[in-house]
Write a structure and sequence with these properties.
Largest sheet: none
Order of helices and strands: HHHHHHHHH
Radius of gyration: 18 Å
Distance between the termini: 37 Å
Strand content: under 5%
Number of helices: 9
Amino acid sequence: CAINNQQINEVASRLPDLAERTRRVFGPNHLWTLDADRATGVVLMFQGRIDDAERIFLDVLARLLVHGDDDALHIRTLRNLVRVGRIRGSGSDTSTRSAIAAQIEPLAREQMERATRAYGASSLIALDARIDWAEILVDQHQYGPAIDASRAVLESASDRLGACHHLRMEAMEVLADATHAMGDSGAAA
């Protein structure tokens, strides 16, 4: 909860003891230990230590695959790796952002596919993952698929989410960016 509320100092102060206890009680490859390790990566990411965070996320993913996959933890870890890439690409020139997007697109696609399989295509987790993927497609200049993905999110969410729900707003932003890049500034506006 503290991570979700971005109370990073609270997490950073409690996490080392928790991670050590879960490792001691459950072993290094138990899902709770892996999630504590992932949380350590999240703290490092919020502290700007992107390379350290990425190493932890990749390690968690590798151990997760070897010692019993769990969709929920896998999805969260993929999301963290995608976020690391997005942080690296922010403020970069177009070609650098596009190159980084090409590297993280398979992770975003896997996150979306796992979320869809585990929770259903219209779940909030799957819709959020589809938006992440669509944003990456825009960075790769794949505007048509980004438009399709954004519209799919908006159609799926139209009956359930309010007009100002953050998922709808993000989908509209991606749709506007892709539509503008395709040359239709009026529709984007």
